[in-house]
Amino acid sequence: MRILITAGPTREYLDDVRYISNASSGRMGYAIAAAIRESGHEAVLVSGPVDLAAPTGCELHPVETTADMRDACVKLFPDCDGVIAAAAVCDYKPRSRIVGKIAKTGDPIAIEMIETDDVLAEIGGGKDGRWVVGFALEAENPRENALQKLRAKNCDYIVLNSPEAIGSDSNSVELIDATGSAAATWSGSKQEVARALIQWIETHLAGERPV
Ligand code: CTP
Question: Of 54, 143, 175, 198, which one has the fewest beta carbons inside 10 Å?
Answer without folding.
Answer: 143
